[in-house]
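REQUEST ID: PR-0412
SUBMITTED BY: lab tech R.K.
PRIORITY: routine
TASK: structure prediction, single protein chain
INPUT:
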Amino acid sequence: MKKIIKSIIREIVPIILGILIALYINNWNENRKDEKYIHQILLSIDKELKESNESINEKIPLQKTLIDTLEFYKNNDTISILNVMMKADGISIPSIKISSWKAISSSKIELMEYDRISALADIEEQKENLLSKTQLLMDFTYQNIKETGADKKELIALMMRDIIVSETGLKEEIKGVVENRTID
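STATUS: complete
OUTPUT:
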């Protein structure tokens, strides 16, 4: 009976060790793949955030030009909002890119640190807020495109200032995420 038990143990122990080694190697390989994935996604997020910051930096002067043009023609009842928009080359809105963040947030978010997740979620929320303000501005502008009154022009300028404030806050949030990034 002891010989049978010893024989069984001699056969089972190598099998169990083989299974444990295979599990270890599989876990190590999965961790390596996850590290590579998170490294690539963080690089992509940083690239998108830098492009978004550049877009904001390019658009704010154009938006200020629109505000100045609205202020200049505010009291001129012969110049419509459409004419002002044409003189200022329209409404310029930056492109805020967060598709890499959305990709990881819907798949492997557990691989990221909480502070980074929180900051990226804040950027996404600010982007949505900016889109909402932009849509409100566009709707108001199109509904009043033929108006010539100072009050409508002043309201558009006020909406543009509010958008610039939102963009500036978003820019600072992006800057904080990009500067605090640590990739091994």
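NOTES: The chain has a mean pLDDT of 91.
REVIEWED BY: pending
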